[in-house]
Description:
The chain is mainly α. The chain has helices spanning 3-23, 30-37, 41-48, 51-74, 81-98, 100-107, 120-135, 143-162, 172-185, 197-213, 222-235. The longest helix is centred in the N-terminal third of the chain and has 24 residues, at 51-74. The model has no long low-confidence stretch (mean pLDDT 85).
Amino acid sequence: MNEGRRAARRQVLQVAAELLEEGGSEAVSTRAVAAAAGITAPALYRMFDDKDGLLAELAAYGFERYLAEKREALALTPDDPVADLYRGWDLHVDFGLRHPAFYMLMYGTVRPGQRPPAADEAHALLVELLSRAADAGRLRVPVEQATRVIHAATTGATLALIGEEPSVRDLTTSARLRDTVIASVTTDSPAPPGSDLASRALALDAALETALTTGPGVPLRDTETALLRDWLQRLAG
């Protein structure tokens, strides 16, 4: 795609985003978007195929905005992986409450067994934060399990708060759930060597995962690596 077409597509998405924020997904009809963007309906269809294609691109645009805000905010916090989990939760909920129509499009329209491709990077960011916690010996459960728990709890809390009238919305609900959920999967402080077998096993498993995906690898055969990781995950309970 050349630069001109990319810029035109971006402009249409910005127009569609304004309509979404003002009137919800019902306001994002192909006719309304084309008129607001000053293009013809056939031109819009050439860009996005149909309304479903437009909404999918709009969800990706929402995730792009969300991740840019979240990465910028996390870069300003102390280098503490567990503190980042708390901060990440609050940033997630805050984005949803400031952009409810976007959030509903991003997280409220998922079909069973299907995750929008645009959600993959957001999912990867949570895995990254939890992997750092595991590396530091601060995780009680495997990264995959912790990811599922925090994702489910965060999105559930945000959708519940969006569904309430702002005048009666109580943000302490999110804070209490955040504290309970994150405390259930993390430890208060790094465990001294040998004092917490489960967290040490998780830390080593996380280190192996990092070495396998981004580092030089490990001096073990694939079968040996798989067996070692199975033992570590059993020790982690």
